[in-house]
Inverse folding.
């Protein structure tokens, strides 16, 4: 379920995110390493599946005490969607989390992650997951 985040990435940098609950993050497989990923995301009852950049970890720039999972959807959508179920399929690990000396360098890294994700998510091996059964059925409705 989507929860209210810190509003830093969206508010300060212009990259709004959908934030997973701490319970959802705690239930992720332990072997899933912290870092930046690209993947596909579906929000609520919508059949639409969007490309996304996902941050999983402690966000060193902001020094999060708890592990978080933030999804920046690479498509214009209305945010926030608090309380709504989100499905995310991680496709590829992009890089480790880093600490940046300033917001400008963090924003530059995010922009680079977005460009990399767009390139990867156009590849056939990535596109097939956009239509994966994980996303097909929503509350008994076949998308």
């Amino acid at each position: 379920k989507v929860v209210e985040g810190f509003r830093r990435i969206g508010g300060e940098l212009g990259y709004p995110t959908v934030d997973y609950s701490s319970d959802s993050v705690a239930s992720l497989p332990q072997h899933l390493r912290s870092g930046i990923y690209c993947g596909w995301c579906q929000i609520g009852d919508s059949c639409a599946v969007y490309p996304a950049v996902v941050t999983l970890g402690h966000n060193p720039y902001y020094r999060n005490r708890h592990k978080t999972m933030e999804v920046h959807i690479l498509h214009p959508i209305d945010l926030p969607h608090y309380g709504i179920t989100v499905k995310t399929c991680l496709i590829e690990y992009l890089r480790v989390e880093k600490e940046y000396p300033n917001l400008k360098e963090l924003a530059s890294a995010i922009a680079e992650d977005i460009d990399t994700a767009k390139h990867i998510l156009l590849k056939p091996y990535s596109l097939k997951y956009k239509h994966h059964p994980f996303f097909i059925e929503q509350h008994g409705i076949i998308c």
Q: What stands out?
A: The two ends are 20 Å apart (CA to CA). The longest strand covers residues 86-95. The domain at 2-142 is CATH 2.40.30.30 (Elongation Factor Tu (Ef-tu); domain 3).
